[in-house]
Amino acid sequence: MRDIAGLGAIGGIDYTVLLCQDITSMRGFYVEVMGFEIGSEVPGKWVEFRVGSHRLALRLRSRPYDGPAPVPDAASVQLAFRVPPGELQRAVTQLADLGVQLLEPVTDFEFFGHRAFFFADPENNVIEIYAEV
Fold first, then answer.
1. How many alpha carbons lie under 13 Å from residue 34 in its C-beta half-sphere?
2. Within its chain, how far is the Cα of 34 from the centroid?
3. Which CATH architecture does the domain made up of 72-133 adopt?
4. Residuewise pLDDT in 10s, the chain (133 residues)
5. Ramachandran category for residue 132: left, alpha or beta (phi over 0 → left; psi -120 to 50 → alpha)
6. Domain boundaries, given as residue ranges, for the chain
7. Whole-prediction pTM
């Protein structure tokens, strides 16, 4: 039996934080492209979005333990967002209308039962939009 005290009391992931070099462009991307609404913000330092029951936050890379930014064109994180099957192509069209290029075309991942596509945010984090099929 697992001890439910201390670390054993963790019940889920509350929020994910992306460390940013340019929080202004990242904020713009997640508002204007992804359509996320800002939940709270410390201008130039922290932006938090509510995404379903999860929170996605952007934090300026400023602490000694943050280390250097990833090398250009190298992804450091992949975020996956699920949409209903009928909305996948609409999402592709919306991104194309905004000038966002896909990293690869819509692909069926039969092993996972998903159809998905991928693109990147301004700091090269990979974003996956998928639907269960």
1. 26
2. 9
3. 2-Layer Sandwich (3.30)
4. 667 888 888 888 899 999 999 999 999 999 999 999 999 999 999 999 999 889 999 999 999 999 888 887 888 899 999 999 999 999 999 999 999 999 999 999 999 999 999 999 999 999 999 999 8
5. beta
6. 1-63, 72-133
7. 0.90
Domain range 1-63, CATH class: alpha beta
Helix or strand holding residue 26 (H, E): helix 23-28
Instruction: Please identify which residue in the block is written with the tokens 């070099």.
Output: 21
Tokens for 122, please give them: 């301004």
With helix as H, strand as E and coil as C, how does 48-114 read?
EEEECCEEEEEEECCCHHHCCCCCCCCCCCEEEEECCHHHHHHHHHHHHHCCCCCCEEEEEECCCCE
